[in-house]
From TrEMBL:
NCBIfam families: arsC_related
Similarity comment: Belongs to the ArsC family.
InterPro entries named among the record's database cross-references: Arsenate_reductase-like, Thioredoxin-like_sf, Tscrpt_reg_Spx/MgsR
Protein name: Arsenate reductase family protein
Amino acid sequence: MALVMYLYPKCGTCRKAKKYLEEHGVSFTEKNIVEESPSREQLAEMVAKSGLPVQKFFNTSGMKYRELGLSKKLKGMSDDEKLDLLASDGMLIKRPITTDGEKVTVGFREETFADTWVK
């Protein structure tokens, strides 16, 4: 699978991540996380391959997260319920999510991108 980055075009972190890959000659397909949100199955697979807990996939600084009061609600939810919630609205997902089908990174840290995506 080619590298895919789920991003939100107005997100500054997403723009930095995109610029970083472009500057390092890494080709990728861009998907708008709101218009082409990953499915529940895709999210479950990304969570499994990332080695991260489902909570790390939530955009905790987003308005939608705060509106829904998820900081309190997530603790009592199962992973299945969390995945259902993430799949229901792309704005709840932390971005960018970058994957090649085997590896997954959530958010953008230059060191992580260098180690994971820049060969």
